[in-house]
């Protein structure tokens, strides 16, 4: 009889231990779920913060024209360079008179495709509309080279809107992965990145890399 009682006591003890461990596991599961929810909330807040910062940064550069392909020369006159570009593409310097012209140093980042490039020239115009009009005048003119404005180099000069660092990285990712993801085009307009699968398909705005 005592042996039977000991077996029952052992079974009860094991059962109690099992129930206790199960409660601990359930608690850990709940705690783990709570941690994951907290992490998700932090990631979402971080995403919203980055989007807000990107929008604020864009407001400071949305009227800026970025000029690439102009060789760097010591003691260069950037205002004169911009005036030569404007004259060449038949843009009135009085209408598109910049408030500031300067070169911006590039960081050698692999994630933006800007390695070993000549620093671009930034031209701050009166408005985003003025910037867009100037770019369209260049498109109507066609190919423009450094030789067209007095340099010996025949490197092409490209005009475009200035991008925030976040948008620049997103555009670079879109362009480097578009073929693998079945897209034909990737471009940026007014600080927003778009992709399109064909000439007739609808453009898709890409807000983040996961898109």
UniProtKB/TrEMBL annotation:
InterPro entries: FP_C (IPR057251). It comes from the Eukaryota. Residues 164-211 form the FP protein C-terminal domain. Pfam families: Baculo_FP_2nd (PF25298). This is FP protein C-terminal domain-containing protein. It comes from Nesidiocoris tenuis.
């Amino acid at each position: 009889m005592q042996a039977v009682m000991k077996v029952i006591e052992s079974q009860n003890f094991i059962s109690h231990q099992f129930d206790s461990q199960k409660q601990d596991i359930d608690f850990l599961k709940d705690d783990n779920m709570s941690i994951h929810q907290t992490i998700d909330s932090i990631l979402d807040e971080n995403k919203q913060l980055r989007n807000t910062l990107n929008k604020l940064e864009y407001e400071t550069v949305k009227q800026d024209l970025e000029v690439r392909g102009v060789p760097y020369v010591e003691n260069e006159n950037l205002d004169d360079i911009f005036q030569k570009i404007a004259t060449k593409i038949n843009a009135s310097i009085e209408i598109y008179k910049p408030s500031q012209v300067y070169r911006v140093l590039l960081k050698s980042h692999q994630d933006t495709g800007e390695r070993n490039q000549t620093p671009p020239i930034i031209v701050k115009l009166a408005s985003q509309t003025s910037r867009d009009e100037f770019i369209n005048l260049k498109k109507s003119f066609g190919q423009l080279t450094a030789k067209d404005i007095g340099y010996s180099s025949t490197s092409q000069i490209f005009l475009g809107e200035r991008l925030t660092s976040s948008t620049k990285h997103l555009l670079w990712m879109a362009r480097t992965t578009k073929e693998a993801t079945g897209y034909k085009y990737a471009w940026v307009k007014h600080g927003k990145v778009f992709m399109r699968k064909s000439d007739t398909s609808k453009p898709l705005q890409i807000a983040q890399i996961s898109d």
